[in-house]
């Protein structure tokens, strides 16, 4: 039976000789369910077997929410500076360059206007892939300008948060984006225009302490992590074991901070249903909930 | 269907009718005439019983297990347009108080109301329709949102009272109800209130200040439940019938005292006997009153509302 045994120990294949399987053909959800990438995209990037909502970015959210993926991007060219000459293990400027190269994005939020079920809507959507969706001056400014656009054109505004919080590399400048965006939202509110805040996985830190929690309705995707201090920080500070569902969307809703949790498949319909209801307009076709 | 003790004659006749119809179906005997007679008798008995209800019997009817609850009304009235909104933005989403937006025709309304359960499990889940402070704060948040977007508010009242719990006190049950009452007196959009079951005290009034306050025929509304009143004043739960009479808590009494604006007639045999008809009646009432109220400016609306409440109370000198 010696042919059954390995003659030499360990893996002998050199890294250079390793055969690569093409990436991105399959997706494996955290519970181990496997789905074809194309199938996943068709299913709103939700794993069909376990309903796991895969983390997606502005490109995907815009395609889900805007009719035929038609939209006009606002302030596309805005880019970060390095006002503090910040350096940790890497220079901030290098980090920015690397992030741009990796993601093809200019910063962690994209803003756009377009029709959703036939009616204009301004959406700001964060990209977690760009330095953890962190909020610095550019994110703050782009959101502020998107809100200005909504006010000027009397349009509803929707924010899709997906962020680790404020960007450390811009220090207090980042912190003040909480105040800047909140001030703009106050103006939007004064103008009597609806604001929908969608919290996706993850929505943490400074975003929850500003625009993510200030919606006329705050809504979330199932299972999303939403909280101010991250679970590890809370655990260290309190020395207590955390409940298993701590800071999940379901936990946050139970504690009174979310109006509802919405499956990505129903997102476009539900958002537009809310808008017709709160703006007292006749319901557009196809917006009734299934009985 | 469940029956209260004074409804038993109705139950008997309904069973007779069913048997009669069954015989007709299964044999060749012509029972049309007999069935008709029983039907007539049933209708008459129902009328008789419901014409002469005592205050306590009304209280019993208001708690009838088959009576429609807030969400039954909203879902029937709004169909698939209803979008429930949750949370007080402070501590919790109270399951005993529900709210959300819905359409009647093309008009949006903000619906708010206490919710009871229909079996043991859901009754516990809904805390028997007894809201905590977070329930009242959720209600206020939704009313403020409605005011911001100029959407009229409709409140459905059905509660044995605000929840008398330790945490409810810690979080300020009194403050929450007080705040609601004050804010509702000056809310700049029409408020239509319907008492659809029990209207117990501050727990009811916490969502009960309105331009038009309507009581369904078989409901009660007062400062305390007859049982609690009996146990406090008579020092025994045994005097609940007397307490019910004394409190003048029926829709008729409340209308006479000018503490409510209108009595809504229920179908023969009560709201539970013909739910669909009840929903239709309530829907029409909401539409009718909104048509009248929307003609008023926000200032006129608030002035009238303030005036109405300022005139309540009876005194000498």
Automatic annotation (TrEMBL), chain A:
Pathway: Lipid metabolism; malonyl-CoA biosynthesis; malonyl-CoA from acetyl-CoA: step 1/1. Residues 24-291 form the CoA carboxyltransferase N-terminal domain. SUPFAM superfamilies: ClpP/crotonase (SSF52096). It holds the Pfam family Carboxyl_trans. It catalyses: N(6)-carboxybiotinyl-L-lysyl-[protein] + acetyl-CoA = N(6)-biotinyl-L-lysyl-[protein] + malonyl-CoA. InterPro entries: AcCoA_carboxyl_beta (IPR034733), Acetyl_CoA_COase_Trfase_b_su (IPR000438), ClpP/crotonase-like_dom_sf (IPR029045), COA_CT_N (IPR011762). It is found in: Cytoplasm. Its EC number is 2.1.3.15. One of its GO terms (molecular function) is ATP binding. Gene3D superfamilies: 2-enoyl-CoA Hydratase, Chain A, domain 1. Residues 1-23 are annotated as: Disordered. Component of the acetyl coenzyme A carboxylase (ACC) complex. Biotin carboxylase (BC) catalyzes the carboxylation of biotin on its carrier protein (BCCP) and then the CO(2) group is transferred by the transcarboxylase to acetyl-CoA to form malonyl-CoA. Acetyl-CoA carboxylase is a heterohexamer composed of biotin carboxyl carrier protein (AccB), biotin carboxylase (AccC) and two subunits each of ACCase subunit alpha (AccA) and ACCase subunit beta (AccD). Belongs to the AccD/PCCB family. This is Acetyl-coenzyme A carboxylase carboxyl transferase subunit beta. The lineage of its organism: Bacteria, Pseudomonadati, Bacteroidota, Flavobacteriia, Flavobacteriales.
Automatic annotation (TrEMBL), chain B:
InterPro entries: Acetyl_CoA_COase_a_su, ClpP/crotonase-like_dom_sf, COA_CT_C. Its main location: cytoplasm. Keywords: ATP-binding, Cytoplasm, Fatty acid biosynthesis, Fatty acid metabolism, Lipid biosynthesis, Lipid metabolism, Nucleotide-binding, Transferase. It is an enzyme of class 2 (transferase). One of its GO terms (molecular function) is carboxyl- or carbamoyltransferase activity. SUPFAM superfamilies: ClpP/crotonase (SSF52096). Its EC number is 2.1.3.15. GO terms for biological process: fatty acid biosynthetic process; malonyl-CoA biosynthetic process. It is found in: Cytoplasm. It catalyses: N(6)-carboxybiotinyl-L-lysyl-[protein] + acetyl-CoA = N(6)-biotinyl-L-lysyl-[protein] + malonyl-CoA. NCBIfam families: accA, AccA_sub, PRK05724.1. This is Acetyl-coenzyme A carboxylase carboxyl transferase subunit alpha. It comes from Robiginitalea myxolifaciens.
